[in-house]
Amino acid sequence: MSGPEHRPAPDHEPASTHRSAEPVEFQVEPHDHVEDLVGDPLHADLRLLVAGNQFMAMPDLVAGFIAGRDPTPTVFYETLPPGILVQQLRRGSLRMGTLLLPFTADVIAASPAVLAELHSDGLTDVARPYASNGLSLLVQQGNPKDVTDWRDLARPGVRVAFPDPRTEGIGQLAITALETLGGTGLRDAVLDEAVRRGDVRLTAIHHRQGPRWLLDDDTDIAVVWQTEALHHLHLGRPLAEVALAAPANPTGHYAAAVVTDAPHHDLAVSLVEHLVGPDGQRALRRHGFSPPG
Length: 293
Hints:
It comes from Microlunatus antarcticus. By secondary structure, the protein is an alpha/beta fold. The protein folds into two domains: 24-132 and 253-286, D-Maltodextrin-Binding Protein, domain 2 (3-Layer(aba) Sandwich); 135-243, D-Maltodextrin-Binding Protein, domain 2 (3-Layer(aba) Sandwich). The protein contains eight helices and 14 strands. The strands form three sheets. Strands 2-4-3-7-14-8 form a six-stranded mixed sheet. Strands 11-10-12-9-13 form a five-stranded mixed sheet. It is globular and about 55 Å long. 45% of the residues are buried.
């Protein structure tokens, strides 16, 4: 992005004493961030911070939420890595190149552990669990590298897109899977030795980079959520899924919480109720998410 800084004005909400003045910086070239910023952050009636892997379900969830409401609320949402969203909530703003988004979100959706920490710090209400998901390995059509499980991520010459565990929750879950199957030896072979060789690259935004790198023949394996693999196969892209067997396929859990000083508190509460209610749950099932548990 270039040109003068674009700064949407906040809704005159009070500044939280929990937030610092410095925005969190996030930019990944050549990724088009507009894919993960949906709606009008300036005038929206509701603003959501949602972990990026739910990007395919959000249009369905939002449409179901606003249906039948009078007046119809407008919704802005981000689908970025949860580590970035948490920093954004804590600091009160996000900068992407010359785009600055200074606002207080109404709802944040991330892992229960992350939200429990935010609640402990007084930044959110108690979180409500609403979905769960497993992991998959996404490969090129025909599986030319004969990938079968996590051990293939350590093979020399096999290129891997691995989510950065510092900002992406799936990265931490993938580490758990590596340790379950092969102990610390397999973990170190993938995240130390293979990284040094250049075979493993850490993604900054796995739900965009991993599949794109596969399609561009820049990687051989992308670590993804099962719902992401399902999404790309449903679109007919020349990719294939390598299913992962238990116990080396730990379950990730999703929860949502209303932000303590949400500018649109009542609508935020209604949105969380929609996620955990029957309509929201049906929408999530349509995109492959499992019930919370």
